[in-house]
Amino acid sequence: MKKIISEAKRQEKANDIKNAMLESFASTFNKIRRDGDVEIITEEAKKNSIEQKARLSKGITAILNKQIENELYSSQIYRAFSAWLDDKGWIGGSELFFKYADEELGHMSKIYKYLYEKNSRAIVPNVKNVPQDFNDVRDLVEKALEHEMKVTKNWNDIANKAKGEDDNDTYSFALGYVNEQREEEEKIRNILFSMDLDMPKWKIDEMFKKLL
Length: 212
Fold this sequence. Notes:
Elements lengths: L1 H28 L2 E4 L2 E4 L1 H6 L9 H30 L3 H27 L19 H28 L3 H29 L4 H10 L2
Antiparallel strand pairs: 1-2
Helix pairs in contact: 3-4, 3-5, 4-7, 5-6
């Protein structure tokens, strides 16, 4: 009788171990299934794997994607400036803003690459409409300065947000553009100062060319 009871307990224990193993296998199978000797990682497991972890917060990712849109708009508005100036005979000014338009696309590409490096999702923005006509060359240059001031604010906002999140990498990335903006604003502001002195148009167009 004792032998029968002992055998029953042994069998019960074996069943408990078997059930525990089956539960463990079922859990693992949700993440990994086998095809012969090859392990195939399921989509659920991929999402949770360490190499898929985004290295930027959702807030930083969003504000950088917004800046991609801003840089694209900057490129388009500078292209519009260039086209208007060319049409009015301001060859130096047209060449300068054409160069600025290309530079803005370069800035946009760097943001894309930064997001890629940080394993974070980049979003391709729609192109917004830009103004095509201006009252005169001063009106255009004033709008250019206003736009550069907005760009400065945008990069300051990114730098401050990154600093607030202790994201030193993004803070350093943004700070480079903040420093660059100081110089860009000064260039355009100096053109307006020259206009205030009633400098001849040909001389102002030469100033444009010197900034190339």
